[in-house]
Every structure is written in C-alpha cells, then in structure tokens.
Amino acid sequence: MRSGVLMGAQQQVEAVDAYIDLLSNGTAEQIVGLYADGATVEDPIGAPIRRTREELIEFYSIITNLDSREATLKWAKVAGDTAVFEFTLVTGTAGMSFEITPIDIMVFDDAGKIVSMRAVWEQSDLKQL
C-alpha cells in the first residue's frame, strides 16, 4: 500500500514538472495532453470553468502563442491525489514583458492525469516588467 502512495506522488511530481516545462516549451495540445478527459480548469479561481478539450486548448494557446515564455517552479507539495505548487511565469509580447506567480492546485486520477486545476491569483498579481 505504501509503495502505491509513493508511486502516485512520484507520478504527480512528474506531471507538475512536465506542466512547467510545457508552459515554457510546449504546445497547447501538449499541455492539454496532461489532462484527463472531462477535466476542468478554473484559472483564476472565480473565472468561468473550462470543461471541454477545445476550451482548454484555447486557454493554453493564449500562453503558447506569446513571443516568449518561461515558467520556473518555486515549490510543490503533494498529498493524496492533490498537488499544490507555486511557479513564476514570465511572458513577452509586442516588446512588453509580464510576470505572474500563481499557486496551482491540481487533482489527479489514478493514471496520473489532471482531473482538476484551480489557479490562485488575482489581476493585481500580474506585473509588467
């Protein structure tokens, strides 16, 4: 039983690492590939919940279509089926750069796919560099 819990935690850590890497280097489709069918994204908390694969791809395309982007993981905690982590995302477009440091809460299924992601941040957290 204990090794199953550890393997689940390791899967979640690997999924978080992949998510951060894909925010920097991947396509919207690759990011959405980390999600289970029927997964939801609420980013930020209080925003309309995205429920379809098409909505998720549209959402992540906003980031992946920028001129530059770099995500850096600050810390992560895993417990049960949930990972909570903070990262910094620096983006650039039209000669301007922006930075945001959200905290994401992800819930995973038994296959290590994300079933829910909620991002904790507000508009005042978005800084122009």
UniProtKB/TrEMBL annotation:
UniProt cross-references to SUPFAM superfamilies, sorted A to Z? NTF2-like
Q: Name one Pfam family in it.
A: SnoaL_2
Q: Specify the signal sequence span.
A: none
Segments forming domain SnoaL-like: 16-117
Tell me the domain of life: Bacteria
What are the protein's GO molecular function terms? isomerase activity
Any coiled-coil ranges, and where?
none
Q: Which UniProt keywords apply?
A: Isomerase
Q: What is this protein called?
A: Steroid delta-isomerase
